[in-house]
Amino acid sequence: MEIKSTKLLYTIAMLVLGLFMILPFLWMISTSFKTPNEVFQYPIQWIPQKVTFEHHLKVWTGKESFLIYYMNSLKIALICMVGATFLSSLAAYGFSRIEFKGRNLLFMFYLSMMMVPPQVLFVPKFILFDKIGIYNTHWALILPGLFTIFGVFLMRQFFMSIPQEITESAFVDGAGHFRIFFQLMLPLAKPALATLAIIDFSWHWNDYENALVFLLDRDLYTVPLGMQNFILEFNIDYNGMMAATSAGIVPMLLVFLIGQKYIIQGITGSAVKG
């Protein structure tokens, strides 16, 4: 009885914390349907007195439609997500299943690169991209985005949890590394792949600094840069910004909803193994 009461208290506490976490999102959605005069009203009116769709329409049909920004962000985020997930898995397989001299030392050196602040690389990357002719193009965001140290670490840890006997049996049956990787390891790694895909997509969808540094033409702007359209000379269009932000979280929600099944399978599967 005492255990059940403790679980009930934990559940209630998590519910309260969850409600506090979603309050900013509820305010964002509510504000996107308000008039400008209602934005900073106190006490906060969660349900607008007069619901208006003007700001949502302006996002898509205004003078500078957000459609091109959304398409640019989708293009960059999807290519980076697919490429980074595949390349990270391939590198992780090598670090976890292929024996070679200095493997662990090389992996530790690779992980140490995570301690380098990304801002330090802006100038070298700017010079490099300018030299090879990809500055002010989407390739300046896509090519570096195909490689992620965190992704290699995540996938390697998952591959290390798969029993060695499985791959050894495949070797005995005559399978090579590529066949084992594509037909054996990747199907088993669906939970980790889904987790990495969601994290990587969210990172590139919300990436502001790289887009700000390496993109100049407005036609190449991504959603975070497009938000600057609502920062006017003398004021800020909060309603329009909240409407654009509300629409901006939809792709991330869709990616999560598509991949959550595999994440739950990974959590439950690891719990059973444990």
From TrEMBL:
Membrane topology: Multi-pass membrane protein
Pfam families: BPD_transp_1 (PF00528)
Record keywords, A-Z: Cell membrane, Membrane, Transmembrane, Transmembrane helix, Transport
Transmembrane segments: 7-29, 67-93, 105-127, 139-159, 180-199, 238-258
Keyword field contains Iron: no
CDD domains noted in UniProt: TM_PBP2
Record's keyword annotation contains Transmembrane helix: yes
Residue intervals of the ABC transmembrane type-1 domain: 70-259
Family according to the record: Belongs to the binding-protein-dependent transport system permease family.
Subcellular location: Cell membrane
Lineage: superkingdom: Bacteria
Protein name: ABC transporter permease subunit
SUPFAM superfamilies linked to this entry: MetI-like
